Amino acid sequence: MSTTLITEDTDAPINTEQQSREKRDRLLSWLMPIVMLGAAIGYWEWAVWYFEVPHYLIPAPSRIGQTLITDGPSLMVSAWFTVKLTLLSLLLAVVGGVALGALFALSRTVEMSLFPFAVILQVTPVVAIAPLILIYVHSTFAALLICAWIVAFFPILSGTVIGLRSADHNLRDLFTLYRATPWQRLRFLLAPSALPQFMSALKVAGGLALIGAVVAEFVAGAAGQNTGLASRIIESSFRSEIPRMFAALVLVSLLGIVIFLLTSWASRRVLGHWHESELRREH
Amino acid sequence: MSTPIIRMDRVTRRFGKDVLAVDNMSMDIEAGEFISFLGPSGCGKSTALKMIAGLLPVSAGTIDIERPSGASEQDLAFVFQEPTLMPWATVFDNVYLPLRLAGVKRAEAMPRVMAILAEVGLTKFAKTYPRALSGGMKMRVSIARAMVTHPRILLMDEPFAALDEMTRSKLNNDVVRLAKEHGLTVIFVTHSVFEAVYLSSRIIVMAARPGRVAADIPMQTPWPRDESWRTSVEFSAVAQSVSETLKGTLHVDDLDH
What we know:
- The complex is a heterodimer.
- By secondary structure, chain A is an all-alpha fold.
- Chain A contains 10 helices and no strands.
- Chain A has helices at residues 16-50, 61-70, 72-106, 108-123, 126-136, 140-165, 169-177, 182-221, 229-238, 242-271.
- Chain A starts with 15 loop residues before the first helix and ends in a 12-residue tail after the last helix.
- By secondary structure, chain B is of the alpha/beta class.
- Chain B folds into 2 domains: 12-23 and 31-56 and 162-257, Rossmann fold; 72-151.
- Chain B has helices spanning 45-53, 91-101, 106-119, 135-147, 165-181, 193-199, 233-249, and strands at residues 6-15, 19-29, 34-38, 60-65, 76-79, 153-157, 185-190, 202-207, 212-218.
- In chain B, a hairpin with a 3-residue loop joins strand 1 (6-15) and strand 2.
- The longest helix of chain B has 17 residues, at 165-181.
- Chain B is globular and about 50 Å long.
- The interface between A and B is medium-sized, with 20 and 23 residues.
């Protein structure tokens, strides 16, 4: 039997078609959402003008933009209030959720004793608890913070608990074999294993913190004691200032989008180099 | 005769009330032996290995591992059926793990990690993440991690079962070479007769329900053997006789599935 070895010493022709297709795909992934969004806003503007819809029913985007500029300073103060409320409640939810989650993962007894409280907090609608909290807590900001925190806290807690438990059992054995201390086990095995679940919980909690903040402001806003974006929406609706309602709504939306982008970016930063959920696949 | 490095005395392991995974297993293992636990699934070979590693408690009996005085570092290593690498860490960090857990600083560990990576031919991949490696390469990282503490005993739980034939045979030779160069005592769990015959200096054939030692076969052929022995008449003859022993341990109903 004779064997022939095949050697390759010339460069293979480059598939330029495939390369340009990839370039086009990258461009389209940015361009398409922008174009579609622009088209939708353009149609809205045109439809309001064409059907002569009065601005106190549905304002045109241009009028909303104008309101954003004229009412800008006062709206910004409200926006800052909501931003503070949302981010602070998210931060406290992360701190509390991770601490309690770690405690749950370490001890079944603690989990069994405290889990009912976590579930009760989660299943009771925040709108129902908010009036009570507003009565008992003197500072409105603190009361709103508690409401938003309740909503954002649970996903972080359950994500952390599930994440910490999801470490590969062979790797656990390996750490046992090498007599790892509890701290080493947490630092080098459990925490990294928990990151995928934690990051997806963070994305959910980011959105929920904003919802919690808005809902709490609605409840408190009727009492007219604070200046968040949601209470501006209510206040404007009492005065039938529809463009200002839309302007505040745009700001709430923007805040939600920024939180979503930030948490998604963080997730990619943390998991991008190893976890399936954030890996780019070649087509 | 010297004291055995591992002595198992009437070791028994139960799971729950009814399942007897390992029943009354006794044996002495001498330093430098390359032992295979060979048997069908469910014969308790992995359970026995995990008990030796201290990862599973025994239900009855004792396992004594002889430790020379002053042996402070990890002297027993385990290679799992899956590569069991940390996907978030590079090849270097995966191999560095046992030293890191023992408190060795990164700079101090560097030459040792790189030396063992060189031995398994992965120097170029120190900064690579496991997902970019082939199955065989992942297994070599796993072996390097086991070897980095310079253990005296290496326990391997069907490490190459999921690999293709070529890779498996290559890794077989690598393990034998490492075992010889480092003077290791190896216990190698496998269900492949050919693998057991090629690798071992002694084969323990195990039977199922309850898991027990069915035969203890010392291999006459000098160890280690080279690749050409795989195609020799002697190899076929030994493999056939071990196969017969193994078949004799099977229950009739085992052959259906």
